[in-house]
């Protein structure tokens, strides 16, 4: 083996290296080379660390607690808080009392709120055999009503955007906890070792106020955080080395870096960020082929492009991200988080509820429905949960005369696929849509139910934090329960 030309070239390069580098290499080189280890085991250091992490927590990578109905989740996150009474929860009493003083006490969040009720400006209609009532602004989603599970009785713990977004993703409005995507990565591991377990598809133009808090690993290993892919230009920046660097030079650099990483890892065995970084480098190498294939939309048919609205400037950005989400779950990604076109909270209708709601429905309705249709046609909807939700709802009184303020007491969301019961409308709010009143569902209840469909018991999926086992739902504190009425029999 040592007589081949490549080995001789490496020996010559070693002899010419500065003495300090050669001494460091000699001191740091482990008995088994990193390439040999990878070749023999198929795992990088990040993978070994991840396996160790699961076993230390009583988990086995990829092993659910019980048979799962679903394998993946796509979260279509509608940042800003869509108005429930304008899209999903028609209120005849609100229409009747338009402009009148509200007879109930309202928690107002920002200045500009009045005591005058403001009616929904959009007509509703019944969709599907189930007769689900939805706004006429959602004709494409409405056309799939028999596949949708509409929850009208959601409530949350904070009515500020950042805290509300963090709560929808982590179950708490305090910062620094792991998101649901991170818990799923921790609990189930990867469905494709050549792609990240958890991918975020945001608008390349910007973030909302929560930024990367919405896909943070919190105090779990950094390996479980969301990985951002771009829907415009190069999907994964810096994935390939510059053309002028030869493959052999790149290999030598990576081998030397690996010896330094191993040396550092032995000195600081508890630093998960280093393990994640090593794992990410190894994943990047594997992604050079897999990610390019999974994210290449060039061969999608004209019919598929039309399904997602890729040829319409109003829907192309969000539609591209929805299509990428389908391709990613098809390739084994467990959790994909999709955002609309945004620089800020695009559903935040403080000033002109009618204009802004119409704009956002036009952008999101067709691609969202296209995703559901495409998943169904490919046999993926049964194993993929699609969740359409914002961080909270809106108030029934007017703000600035034509807008609506934030409302933590009630909001609506849509679920589809993954064993959820289609054609169902669950829960109720009061006569003005202000508070959830019947069959109330907390964010932690939602999380418990989503994990259940993935085969995970939310009370058993735990990791030690501050000296006690903690979880996504923190059930002893939140009282979270699986909402079994949402699940198909």
Shape estimate: globular
> Remind me, CATH topology?
Alkaline Phosphatase, subunit A
Rg is 25 Å
CATH superfamily: Alkaline Phosphatase, subunit A
Distance between the termini: 62 Å
Largest sheet: 9 strands, mixed
CATH class: Alpha Beta
Number of strands: 19
Number of helices: 16
Question: Domains counted in the coordinates: how many?
Answer: 1
Mean pLDDT score, rounded?
86
> What amount of the residues lies in strands?
15-25%
Helix content: 25-40%
Low-confidence stretches: 1-60
Structural class of the helices, strands and pairings? alpha/beta
Per CATH, the architecture is 3-Layer(aba) Sandwich
Structural topology:
Layout: H1 5-16, H2 19-28, H3 34-41, H4 45-56, E1 72-77, H5 84-87, H6 92-96, E2 113-117, E3 124-127, E4 132-135, H7 139-142, E5 148-155, H8 161-170, H9 180-188, E6 198-201, E7 227-229, H10 247-267, H11 272-294, H12 302-308, H13 316-330, E8 335-338, H14 353-377, E9 384-389, E10 393-394, E11 397-399, E12 406-407, E13 411-416, E14 424-426, E15 428-429, E16 436-438, E17 441-442, H15 443-453, E18 462-465, E19 468-471, H16 475-478
Helix pairs in contact: 4-11, 13-14
